[in-house]
Specification:
heterodimer; A: 112 residues; alpha/beta; Nucleotidyltransferase, domain 5; 3 helices; globular; B: 292 residues; Rossmann fold; 2 domains; nine-stranded mixed beta sheet; two-stranded antiparallel ribbon; 11 strands; elongated
């Protein structure tokens, strides 16, 4: 499974970023290879509008199996992501990536 | 740290007056963030002392280099916004019309057109008259509010809350349901809705509640001028009840509301019936965010 997190930082102790489009980082974790990668999303800060759809596009290209985030994508991005048949978990803000991942394993996260 | 966002859907419901009153009641505990930057007027009630001011850039603006321009007119032809004009044989961009799409830059055969970051207003860090830190912004005429600017105001408010060890960020959000509103909702713990008993008040409240439900945010509602239209007020109460939105209180129409505004004060700073009502609303909100 490849799991994507919206994150304010670049390691397991970083908090989940509640924002979808304007998340500071998108972290990708590959459970099979244990590869952990943080993708800087700061370029989106320069965009006045359309941050949510830009992130949906990015996720479409990366195509993770699971997304763990906070408030969740907005209406437009949600519609776009539906076609990916990806599992999306929300309300993981106020947790670190590690806590969110553990809760995901125990199936304690809120599914969208 | 808790973030309360005050929204209205419809403009003119008294949202900013209510936010400022909450700001006065929360004095010493809060950071105030004015994200309603199209009509930034929180500063009128908070009379902040500006500590830091910086220019804010958003979007792009085309610029024609007259040296490289050969007056072919292709830019004028493709511009959908009628922003390119020929004046004394020289082509020029009207910055108020330019949307920054960059079409002219693409078609220009001599690369005379370049896109530049557009200055769209000022961003401030201040101390409100309550003594609390305040992050706010003011847009230039014709500039539009954006998710980007709201994100910046909120980010600065968070930094201020950490610096000054405040637990509460009180955000005056933008009207409507567009990009600036969505941006202001990120990370919110609770949303306070301020509406009025009118057809458009209820209509815009419904649209806004749809957005809040998308993000699964908890919200409470205040009906301002509640006694002006009992039928509409009742329609709002039922709508809120059906959608799991708690009623936080109702403010009757009272000239004290306007009188306070004219003096640059909030309704909790003079002796009137609204003061106690606002106090009770503040206590309910405190209760809501403590049990969240």
């Amino acid at each position: 499974m490849r799991i994507a997190f919206t994150s304010v930082g670049t390691n397991w102790d970083a908090q989940i970023d509640p924002r979808f489009g304007r998340t500071a980082y998108l972290v990708l974790y590959n459970e099979e290879t244990e590869q952990f990668e943080a993708i800087d999303n700061s370029s989106v800060q320069a965009d006045a509008h359309g941050a949510g759809t830009a992130m949906a596009q990015r996720i479409y290209e990366l195509h993770p199996d699971v997304l763990i985030t906070g408030n969740g994508p907005g209406d437009t991005a949600s519609k776009a992501l539906k076609n990916l048949h990806m599992r999306i978990y929300v309300e993981a803000h106020n947790m670190s990536l590690k806590e969110a991942y553990e809760k995901y394993k125990k199936q304690e996260l809120t599914a969208l | 740290m808790r973030e309360i966002i005050v929204l209205s859907g419809k403009g003119g419901t008294g949202k900013t007056s209510v936010t400022a009153a909450l700001g006065v009641l929360a004095a010493g505990k809060a950071v105030i963030a004015d994200c309603d930057v199209d009509a930034a007027n929180m500063y009128l009630l908070m009379q902040p002392e500006v500590l830091k001011k910086e220019a804010f850039f958003s979007g792009e603006l085309a610029e024609i280099d007259p040296e490289a321009c050969i007056n072919c007119g292709m830019c004028e032809e493709v511009c959908h916004f009628d922003a390119v004009h020929q004046d004394a044989e020289v082509y020029d961009i009207n910055p108020l019309r330019c949307e920054g799409c960059g079409y002219c830059e693409v078609v220009c055969p001599t690369n005379a057109i370049s896109m530049h970051a557009r200055r769209s207003g000022d961003f401030f860090v201040s101390t409100a008259r309550t003594g609390d830190p305040m992050a706010h912004a003011l847009l230039d005429a014709g500039a539009d509010n954006s998710g980007k600017l709201v994100a910046k105001v909120k980010e600065e408010a968070k930094k201020l809350a950490n610096q000054h060890q405040r637990d509460l960020i009180l955000v005056d959000g933008a009207p409507g349901i567009g990009c600036p509103v969505v941006s202001s909702l990120a990370g919110a713990n609770y949303v306070v809705l301020v509406t009025e008993p009118s057809a458009s008040g209820l209509h815009d409240l419904k649209r806004l509640v749809e957005v809040l439900q998308q993000f699964r945010l908890k919200a409470g509602c205040i009906i301002n001028k509640a006694d002006l239209n009992p039928d509409q007020a009742e329609a709002i109460r039922s709508f809120c009840f059906e959608n799991g939105i708690e009623m936080l209180g109702e403010i009757p129409y009272d000239s004290a509301f306007t009188a306070a505004m004219i003096q640059g004060k909030t309704i909790v700073e003079s002796d009137n019936q609204l003061k106690q009502i606002m106090n009770n609303i503040y206590i309910s909100i405190q209760h809501k965010i403590n049990v969240l």
